[in-house]
Amino acid sequence: MDETVVMQIVADQLHISADSLREETSFVDISADSLDVFQIISALEETYNIEFDNDVAENMKTIGNVLDYIRKVVEK
Predict the structure, then answer these.
(1) Strand, helix or coil for residue 9
(2) I need a surface site. Which of 6, 54, 62, 70 has the fewest CB within 10 A?
């Protein structure tokens, strides 16, 4: 999994620069509402051919949370 791909997807969905994103960046800090997060997760599911568990997706607070989940799922 390439972290820069995840960062670029987040940036594209929110129309911001990927350079401004870090693992510790929270979705609140970048003004992402629940619809934005849903769209980000949908794009990531398509990109990595995975499915986010709904309960897990609802609790994603930071980009690091997303990266950790993708790493865990992809490694299985």
Answers:
(1) helix
(2) 54
Angle of CA points 70, 14, 35, to nearest 5°: 75
Q: Which residue has the higher pLDDT, 1 or 71?
A: 71
Residue 65's nearest CA partner among 16, 32, 19 is 32
Q: Which amino acid is at 41?
A: I
CA distance 42 to 2: 17
Q: What is the pLDDT of residues 21-44, one digit of tens each?
A: 999 999 999 999 999 999 999 999
CB distance 63 to 6 below 8 Å: yes
